[in-house]
Structures are given as structure tokens and as C-alpha cells.
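Deviation from plan, reported transparently: zinc ion complex.
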Amino acid sequence: MRIANVDGRAVIVLETGFVDIARASNGRFASSTRELLGRIDELTSWFADEAPTPTEAIERDELEASRRLGPVVEAPSQIFAVGLNYRTHAAEMGLTPPPQPMIFAKFASCLAGANASFPIVSPRTDWEAELVLVVGRGGRDITTDAALDALAGYCVGQDVSDRDLQMAGSPAQFSLGKSHRNFAPVGPWITTRDEVPDPNDLEIVCHVNDVTFQDSTTHDMVFHVPEIVSYVSSVCELRPGDLIFTGSPHGVGQGQKPPVFLRSGDRVVTTIAGLGTLRNHAE
Ligand code: ZN
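Because the crystal trials were delayed, the predicted structure below was used instead.
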């Protein structure tokens, strides 16, 4: 099942249309994705039993490229991100992966829809293609065995990064440098976990102006998805709708020789196999 935020309302995306969840369920389920995600199994059962007809006709490809898509969760209580979670990316940044997951925050006001544009805020504005985990049931002290069941599903994310602010001092300032306006496009929709047998077996690709810069697999993560969920939940309670960016593979602009950074007008296209594509413009 694919759950999107279209025009600010939670919908289920079908091949040739979408179902407005609150309307089709006569209010049994809420119109915001965040409120649904803790009840994802109930929603999945309802959808299978009722097989509701689309409330609006639109081809899935057309919706995927549309600006009507908002962030998959509008106002999550927390957005975590993992730094240096691919060895080849750590190496291109001149760093070694830490012994436990390196966690920072992206602040909620930087969330954007799948096809949003973002500003060039410094001469070193960079891209990072990432798998994003969408928390379902959540909880505290989640074991690695129970970790995937605590999630609602997965989506594509761009961890847009202002390297000037991120690296302005020592120690580095990750959270603010990655939280400018629209620096967290996520989407195009949440693909529920039942359709993703192994989140660490997905191809992840990023093109900038039609040049392939990133082409890896989520198998190459240092800390795989269950370990990330377990680690974060050992400190912070994970709540329905929380998002976790899982780190970028190699091929970011900073890692090129010489480095390449985004300029106004550039197009960043980020795809994860089976989850969809983000199309973002630098303003
Ligand atoms: Zn990142």
C-alpha cells in the first residue's frame, strides 16, 4: 500500500487514482498521515476488506511528479538522521564511521514534498540520497528482532546539506546545516513495510542534471535498519510518524574530485527502487 499526503490529506495511491482515507472510511481514519501511522495494520486490513474506489482519478506517474504532494508526514514529533552510515561515503568525506550510529536531527520546519524546490544558501550546498524510515507503532527499547514491525513503512529522502554551516566549526554542526527551508524533501509516498521484504536490499540512485552521482544499495549501510531503530529507541521513544534518515551512500558533491556543489536551476532526482522518485530543483 502507498500512503501519500495530497493537498494536505492522507490518501492511498492506486495505479489510476487515489482514495481519500478519511472520506472513504467515513471518518474512521484521520485525514492526516501522522494520525494513521500508529494504526497501519488496521488501515491495511480495512483497505483489503473494503477495496474502496478512487475518490479522484489521476495516473500514478502524474501524481508522483506533482506539486500536490506534501511531506509524507506534516509535523512529526522527531526527525532523526544517521551520519556516516556508508563506509564509502565516510571515506569520501575524509572520515571513518563511528563505532555506534552517529545521530543528528533535521528540524521539522525543513520538511517538504517530493517535488519541492529548495534554496541555494551557500556556495557549498550539497545533495544526499537517503532511505527514510517512517515509524508506525514505535516504542522504547525496541529489539532488532522487533524493529521492522515498529515501522509503518519507507520512503525516499534528500538530506540537502549546507556544508559551509555544517562544517563551520569543530565539532561540526550537522543539525542546523541540514535544516534550511525545504532541505528535507520526502516521498513521494510511504510504501508500507509489508511491500518491502528487506529495507537493506534496495537500489538507491541520485542524478544531478541527468548525471549519475550516486548509485548504491542500502545493503552497504554500516548500521542496518533494525540496528538503527533499536539504537535510537534505546534513548528516545519513537512515536507514530517520526522519521529516520538512514544516511547517504557515496557520490555526494563534497566527495567529487574536485568537489561539485549545487547551483540555482540544478535538478536533483533521487530514486529508490520500488519506493519512487523525488524531483527537486535548486531555486
Ligand atoms: Zn545525510
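DSSP finds eight helices and 18 strands in the chain. We consider this an acceptable substitute for the interim report.
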